[in-house]
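Help needed: design a sequence for this.
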């Protein structure tokens, strides 16, 4: 498992198209039921500190709070308009990107109530902690609770306990247990989500789960293709929703580097100006790494391990290619020489828009794909290998 995979499960949270203010006034119940209007009435009970204000996070990916409401006698109200049911956050603090990432990755946060907003009148009651929330008025929220039941049970009953033991003791044995429980949780969550998505192809929750699963580390061979079939079954109105659009974008990138997929041949100039083709390494295992000179993780988590692997296995059929995402050619050439990076080094000077990188869905400077390992048959057999996971993979192949 790579350093990226060793993180807790990535949770891709949905965009929500909303226009709202807490002060908007409605003309009556009929307006609520015949339009895209929602009214969310909330209560807070038993919190250690009763907040003066709570925030409703509509766009939970970018941590952009669309609204806030005053808390009076433990009660608050949000009113607004929503085009599509989707996951939102309610928190007593103004969440930033780090908070959003933690709440999503960890599956739960006691400071965040997760609610699948929908049209109509809803209630949300948090007891003792924000995340211990009961929601009424949203049938989609009931679906959401069914879909993530396994996530929450695994997280609260297993992972949190081991994480606490490791935090208190710093015992490596607990860390290894934490990594193992993470793998088990990932596998169980995939299964539970898959069952829900197959049974509920028309639910907005399915679009949410597509995003979550597509961002769940490295998916098993064939799984991304299976998720593509789930996406194809979505109704058009969900495909056109912010959640559906997000899922489509992630799918397009993930399919380009999915395990089991065959990699098309490519040619690009190396650091000496000579053209190098992937096909020139026919019959070898080829590790392709995407990197920038400013990427510290490349030097610490990848380079020491791939140097040793190349030294051990270059005569047994291992080849290395690095794809530069730098625009500054001089800095790239200087770093290659100083760092002693082995293998063939390719660049077209376009930075993150590198044409080979785009073949694999790497299109931004904050790239999620670090490397891929291609087997002699031309198919991707692993990706995002770093640290000991890289060493273990090489040992399993060549020894």
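Sure. Designed sequence:
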């Amino acid at each position: 498992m790579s350093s990226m995979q060793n993180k807790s499960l990535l949770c891709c949270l949905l965009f929500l198209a909303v226009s709202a203010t807490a002060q908007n006034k409605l003309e009556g119940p009929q307006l609520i039921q015949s339009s895209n209007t929602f009214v969310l009435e909330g209560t807070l009970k038993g919190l250690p500190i009763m907040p003066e204000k709570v925030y409703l996070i509509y766009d939970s990916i970018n941590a952009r709070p669309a609204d806030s409401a005053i808390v009076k006698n433990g009660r608050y109200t949000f009113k607004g308009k929503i085009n599509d049911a989707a996951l939102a956050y309610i928190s007593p603090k103004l969440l930033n990107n780090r908070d959003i990432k933690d709440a999503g990755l960890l599956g739960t946060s006691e400071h965040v109530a997760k609610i699948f907003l929908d049209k109509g009148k809803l209630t949300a009651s948090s007891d003792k902690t924000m995340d211990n929330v009961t929601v009424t008025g949203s049938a989609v929220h009931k679906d959401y609770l069914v879909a993530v039941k396994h996530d929450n049970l695994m997280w609260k009953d297993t992972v949190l306990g081991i994480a606490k033991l490791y935090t208190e003791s710093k015992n490596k044995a607990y860390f290894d247990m934490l990594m193992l429980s993470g793998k088990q949780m990932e596998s169980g969550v995939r299964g539970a989500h898959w069952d829900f998505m197959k049974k509920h192809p028309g639910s907005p929750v399915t679009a949410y789960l597509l995003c979550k699963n597509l961002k769940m580390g490295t998916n098993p061979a064939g799984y991304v293709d299976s998720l593509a079939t789930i996406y194809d079954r979505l109704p058009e109105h969900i495909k056109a929703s912010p959640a559906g659009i997000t899922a489509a974008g992630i799918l397009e990138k993930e399919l380009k580097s999915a395990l089991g997929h065959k990699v098309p041949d490519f040619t690009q100039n190396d650091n000496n100006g000579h053209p190098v083709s992937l096909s020139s390494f026919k019959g070898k295992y080829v590790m392709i790494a995407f990197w920038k000179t400013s990427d510290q993780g490349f030097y610490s988590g990848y380079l020491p391990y791939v140097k040793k692997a190349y030294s051990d296995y270059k005569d047994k059929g291992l080849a290395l290619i690095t794809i530069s995402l730098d625009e500054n050619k001089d800095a790239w050439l200087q770093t290659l020489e100083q760092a002693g990076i082995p293998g063939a080094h390719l660049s077209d000077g376009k930075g993150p828009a590198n044409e080979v990188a785009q073949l694999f869905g790497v299109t931004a400077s904050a790239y999620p794909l670090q490397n891929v390992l291609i087997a002699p048959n031309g198919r991707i057999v692993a990706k995002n290998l770093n640290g000991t996971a890289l060493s273990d993979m090489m040992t399993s192949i060549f020894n």
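The longest helix spans residues 172-199.
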